[in-house]
Amino acid sequence: MVAVARIMNATLVVPQLDKRSFWKDSSTFSDIFDELHFIESLKRDVKIVKELPKNLEAVPRARKHFTSWSGVGYYEEMKQLWKEYQVIHVAKSDSRLANNNLPLDIQRLRCRALYHALRFSPPIESLGKKLVERLRTRGGRYIALHLRYEKDMLSFTGCTYGLTDAESEELRIMRETTNHWKVKEINSREQRIGGFCPLTPKEVGIFLRALGYPPSTLIYIAAGEIYGGNTSLSELMSYFPNIVFKEELATKEELEAFTGHASQTAALDYIISIESDVFVPSYSGNMARTVEGHRRYLGHRKTINPDRKGLVKIFDKLETGQLKEGSSYSFLVRQMHENRQGAPRKRKGPMQGIKGRARFRTEESFYENPYPECICSSKKRPE
């Protein structure tokens, strides 16, 4: 939205955050980010105000859902709205700008906004750094595992593999009663075969062991409450017992201010994930993609992105006895992920054979991989 405001020559009001999600978090922008730093850092690019000026509160406003993945031409046309309105209320702001074919200055502005202007609030920044230091004292190197095995994600994706009938039914009811989720009936088996499900904790354990990580590996779980609790985690912990949660790293007093604020605790996970030696997301959601892109920007730090569709085939062969854990199995997994570890590469364009606006949905997200626009091609670390 910073880039959109620049294109439309508009003043940007500091955004209000979604409070309707599963987590029902009342956090404001300034609770999570350093608001003054955000405004000051971008003042040469976009004028930003904390709130709508009083004299504009009562004027008629355009409530607009901007079309997803739109380019400069679209927003030039949207300037027509200024003829009738002084205020445009953008109801949804995710994925409203194209990934590709934008002017270089706009792309670089997006990176300035994300990697420089957006800085976490001092309490989050301070505790996040402390937790990283405590992890380092435990084992030096660590993996940050973004284990997206949470109730809302499993319900949203319709993924019930390995769950009991009662758990599956609970997730189905949640999906049907969540109004803003469009898809209500989902075939769980098809989702899993297509690679659209988060890896289960057990599958993550099998995957990391196949990559050669020893049982002593220190793993930080970057996630909310895991669905099924210790029962779900037991098999992962049987492979890797050296697992740590933020609740173990921080004191109760340190976490007290963050209680009930999932966005703020997610920000702590973000800091710890950015600073990790290896980042592994079990699902390619918004946070996972943004962390990967940020790590690329900071020098292509190692991010192992599981090929979930390919792994499911291997997991099923293991389960039926067609394949056994060992050197052959490990070779298959390593070969599959040889080019999925965050090495420098240009952003992927649309999938072949898809036409019309639908092709934009298949492009790799700019925030997942801001190369080449925002990353120097030389060996020097980007500024």
Automatic annotation (TrEMBL):
Locations listed in the record: Membrane
GO biological process: fucose metabolic process
InterPro entries membership: FucosylTrfase_pln, GDP-Fuc_O-FucTrfase
Membrane-spanning ranges: none
GO function terms (MF aspect): glycosyltransferase activity
Residue span of region Disordered: 339-358
Assigned keywords, A-Z: Carbohydrate metabolism, Fucose metabolism, Glycoprotein, Glycosyltransferase, Membrane, Signal-anchor, Transferase, Transmembrane, Transmembrane helix
Pathway: Glycan metabolism
Topology within the bilayer: Single-pass type II membrane protein
A GO term from the CC aspect: membrane
Family as reported in the entry's similarity comment: Belongs to the glycosyltransferase GT106 family.
PANTHER family for this protein: O-FUCOSYLTRANSFERASE 38, OS02G0726500 PROTEIN-RELATED
Protein name: O-fucosyltransferase family protein
